[in-house]
Amino acid sequence: MNRATAARIFDRGTWPEARRIADILRLETVGGVIMLAAALLGLVWANSPWAPAYEALRGVEFGPESLHLRLSLGQWASDGLLAIFFFVAGLELKREFVAGDLRDPRRAAVPVAAAVGGVAVPALIYTLVNLGSPEAASGWAIPTATDIAFALAVLAVIGRFLPSALRTFLLTLAVVDDLIAIVIIALFYTDRLSVVPLLLMLVPLALFTVLVQRRVRSWWLLLPLAAAVWALMHASGVHATVAGVLLGFAVPVIRRRAGEGPGLAEHFEHRFRPLSTGVAVPVFAFFASGVALGGFDGFVSSLTDTVTLGVVAGLLFGKLVGITASTWLVSRFTRAELDDDLAWVDVVGLAVLGGIGFTVSLLVGELAFGQGSTQYGDAKIAVLLGSLLSALVATVILRARNRVYRRIHEEETRDDDHDGIPDVHQRTPTAD
Q1: Could you read off the pLDDT of 208-235 as tens digits, one per residue?
Q2: Is the dihedral of CA 282, 283, 287, 288 positive or negative?
Q3: How is 304-341 classified by DSSP, letter by letter?
Q4: Torsion of Cα atoms, 302 then 303 then 305 then 310, to 10°
Q5: 305-353 confidence digits (pLDDT tens)
Q6: Are the CB atoms for 356 and 147 separated by under 8 Å?
Q7: What molecular function does GO assign, one term (predicted)?
Q8: Can you give the residue ranges of every domain in the chain?
Q9: d(Cα 220, Cα 36) in Å, to the nearest integer?
Q10: What is the CATH number of domain 19-189+239-413?
């Protein structure tokens, strides 16, 4: 295949897309730092002399009992605030495939395949580790998630000269990963299903869809409908975060007329992404990360549990094998070529970084084992430990390449014609 026309893995993409992704990455990176601080606060508080106050705070209940919405603060964080997170994820995923670079199937194939591999292999590893523990089998989906905010925050710390293509790939992989996770939650973690509320949910969802398709932005119309969709989804027994994805998919991406300003999906994304990364996810992290380790002996004991071993192995090794192998298979069978600036060791480092699972992993752990159970406590420890190990190993791999990336970065950002667009985005590929 001619190198001028061969598909590229991790290529730079278009300049407008690169600028948009850069804006998203800045917010997600800051959000990852805030979330890390919130998670550490919850973990330290839960293991301090003031742990009863933490548990009391997490257990405070409020909400209308008549609507079955009298929930604890911890439940409001996981069921309510995370719906905002998944709404933004739905917006981003739809935008990527409708108007982003991934509308090209050749570009979409790699991150989609990598996300599928990064879900399947960790789930398989967890299942194999827990073959002799039927009571732990329901946690198979815990190590399948990648936390984009944490992963990008680590990527930012590793080195600012890492290629933007790696960051873009990680962002897209994590968004597709979130979509797969929400499908898993809907299909496999719905214990009871009430058909009437589920059918009634379609009414406000349809009204919301009609309004946004007509480019209506009035919050006093849209927010009550969105709340109704969420409440009815919650009452149906399907996890309420699914409502966030459905609402995100309903929002149109393409502008109705040229020159009318940002599309509605972009408008909502700008409004809700700061709320998601700066408030919703950190609050969830604060309430979800508070697990009592039980001292050194309790921590060591949890490390021998098959739930812990399965989750850690799935995050650290499953993501590495699943993402790397899927990417290689796509390149092998489509004859796509790795971008000239990158090497396969970069893909390996990125795959290990994909083992940082937090937000969705903790949510799945709660759904699988239930709040307050010993297995859920072990799952929390495993998610924290597996994410930490993945971050450390990825740092060792990618930092070794940082000096090379510095040189690449200097070449990419050169703007010799001073038109505000890096020359690398204006370069026309030539055949060898």
Answers
A1: 999 999 888 888 999 999 999 999 999 9
A2: negative
A3: TSHHHHHHHHIIIIIHHHHHHHHHHHHHHHH--EE-TT
A4: 130
A5: 999 999 999 999 999 999 999 999 988 887 666 666 677 888 899 999 9
A6: yes
A7: sodium:proton antiporter activity
A8: 19-189+239-413
A9: 34
A10: 1.20.1530.10
